[in-house]
């Protein structure tokens, strides 16, 4: 799996190449969090504040599903100050997904904000499957 940071005048984005769209969506959640929080805990780290939450997301197509997925992860950060450390997608179709989110409560003394992501956008969005790999690209309004 390969993650690349993309810059744009008023946005920041990520592009991920992975073996499957499911894997790319999982990596996109962590990629977005790494833009928001500078000191993102290592994947799989369990702390005293470690939480697990199950979520379901729907969309009309792959791009809409990607926006809705990342918007849900962003909502948990904005509304509840929960950092998504890892996302395990347990069910995945072209228009829906189920996932277990591994979360950690934001602690300002430990987690240093990097950028304030306001929204997930449709600008230049890609969610595609090739013969041997998958790719997602998404930009965030900052």
Protein described:
This protein is α+β, with helices and mostly antiparallel strands and 142 residues long. It has helices at 21-36, 62-80, and strands spanning 2-7, 11-18, 50-58, 82-92, 96-105, 119-120, 126-129, 134-141. The strands form two sheets. Strands 1, 2, 6, 7 and 8 form a five-stranded antiparallel sheet that branches. The chain has a three-stranded antiparallel sheet with strand order 3-5-4. The radius of gyration is 14 Å and the shape is globular.
Features:
single chain, 142 residues, alpha+beta, Archease, Possible Chaperone, Chain: A, domain 1, 2 helices
What is the helical fraction, as a range of percent?
10-25%
Number of distinct beta strands: 8
pLDDT < 50 stretches:
none
Helix/strand-derived category reads alpha+beta
CATH architecture label = 3-Layer(bab) Sandwich
What profile does the largest beta sheet have? 5 strands, antiparallel
> How far apart, in Å, are the first and last alpha carbons?
25 Å
Treating each run of at least 4 consecutive H or I residues as one helix, how many helices? 2
Radius of gyration: 14 Å
Q: Per the principal axes of the C-alpha atoms, what is the gross shape?
A: globular
Domain unit count: 1
Whole-number mean pLDDT: 91
According to CATH, what is the topology? Answer: Archease, Possible Chaperone, Chain: A, domain 1
The share of residues in extended strands comes to 35-45%
User: CATH first level: which class?
Assistant: Alpha Beta
CATH superfamily: Archease domain
Oligomer: single chain
- Series of H and E elements: EEHEHEEEEE
